[in-house]
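FAQ
Q: What does a multi-component entry look like?
A: The components come first, one per line:
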Amino acid sequence: MVLALLLARQGVNVTLLEAHHDFDRDFRGDTIHPATLEALDQLGLADRLLQIPHGKLEAMQFSSNGVITTVAQFRRLKTRFPYIMILPQSKFLDFLAEEARRYPPFKLVFGANVQRLIQEDGTTRGVRYRGADDAWHEVRAPLTVGADGRFSKIRSLSGAVPVKSSPPMDVLWFRLPRNPEDPRDQITFYVGGGLFIFLLDRGDEWQVGYALTKGSFSETKTAGLDNLKSNLSHQVPWITDRTDTLQDWKQIVALSVESSRVPQWYQPGLLLIGDAAHVMSPVGGVGINYAIQDAIEAANQLAEPLKAGQVTTAQLAAVQNRREFPIRVIQRFQGFVQDRVVRTALDRDRPFQLPLAARILLRIPILRDIPARLIAFGIRRSRIRM
Ligand SMILES: Cc1cc2nc3c(=O)[nH]c(=O)nc-3n(C[C@H](O)[C@H](O)[C@H](O)COP(=O)(O)OP(=O)(O)OC[C@H]3O[C@@H](n4cnc5c(N)ncnc54)[C@H](O)[C@@H]3O)c2cc1C
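Then the predicted structure of the entire assembly, as tokens:
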């Protein structure tokens, strides 16, 4: 959506195909990071977006045996937006779509399930999709962008094979009611004793993530919902009065967490961005921001060639060249956290402690904001070429 908006405002014809019939659904993550807010500010959109009722995340912290450690303090960052905005992604996408519709070259087709690539002479020339009318349709274009997420159809049709970059795990994903007197504006990870649970403030409710070692969901289910609720109460005592709202496993989604990236994001006429190019783990909640940064870089590199009607593979390679290093760094960081923090926390027999390197880093004033900066901006912030 961000790439479509950026290209359309520069006069490039864009057809955005979305398999769903609207944006009205639950997404994996509702976070809008400082880097994204700064980019929207460049477009003059940030203040308008901030008028939509939203939550604000000012800190990320760990709680273990009652001891709280702040691992990322966004308030100290030097930016107009020293927080992560929490807004249902459906509202964010509606906002962006409304803005993009102001530009005549933008076209959004809902219910368009892309199923085939049109390939001629070794070059992708567009796609075929099944529409809401169940008929086949075709879109031809000088460039096809696969921004279709972790299970990308475009990626698999292109033959690109992702390489895993961190150990897999599972997360149980559910909501609990929020009371007015609950802690505000933060995400807290409650860890230790075999449990890793996080609560994200969504304004009117809590988004709960309950991490599991890969493949242990059926064991957790067999242990029963009461066992899960008692673990929640044990780890987060103040939430106990609401755990009874969990009545059925249907309220809980088991999400598979993976992290991977494809070695080459492009082929003649085709580019992968976002999770299609690099599946992001939920650690740090950065996947949306990194996908948006890819979109900004793609628009910066490709708007002019697209206006001229032709994109070379060297120009597509330039997008990957700019984005690959930041992605590698954040995925390495996420792998470290999954391996050294989440796995240790899930081990019942080991007392939980943050890794020594992290404890030292967080004590040194000039270094302690590195995690916050990495989460808020990544290591290279792409600015929109205006
Ligand atoms: C448990 C979990 C929690 C997470 N929490 C966060 C978080 O808090 N913050 C954060 O920033 N990131 C989070 N992430 C990561 C984040 O979800 C992704 O990195 C991000 O959504 C990637 O954006 P994207 O635009 O590339 O893909 P997506 O957001 O997956 O969007 C892809 C779009 O393509 C459409 N599509 C798919 N196939 C087709 C097709 N064949 N035809 C047409 N359309 C199609 C889909 O309907 C969808 O709208 C989390 C991930 C997990 C697993």
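Q: Is there any commentary attached?
A: Sometimes. For this entry: The chain has two domains: 2-52+79-164+259-339+368-377, 169-257.
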